[in-house]
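Supplementary notes for students who missed Thursday's class. We covered one full example, reproduced here. Read the sequence, then the structure, then the short commentary at the end.
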Amino acid sequence: MNPTAMDYGVVPRIVKDKEAWLEEQDGSWRFYIHVLERIDSGIFVCLEDQAANGGTYHTQDVLYLVRSDNKSPLKSAETTTVFKSCPHLGEPASASTH
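Structure (token representation):
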């Protein structure tokens, strides 16, 4: 069985149609995920993660999620696609705008 976010101590706080706010159980870390675009070969999502324990870590980037078949879990695949609604935060990235 594949591990879930809860196996890593991450719990959902708000879950809506195309977005979710997740946190570590102790509130020290936050994640925001929202669907940007779904295409036949996969799903583009925006993932933002941020330290909520007084730290300064804060990143955001586009992830491309794919699966090998309908029964497989989604896995991240490399992408250089950028969405204006999900600007890259963190280390510099070179990518084409979508």
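Commentary. Confidence is low (pLDDT under 50) at residues 92-98. The chain has one domain: 5-90. If anything here is unclear, bring it to office hours.
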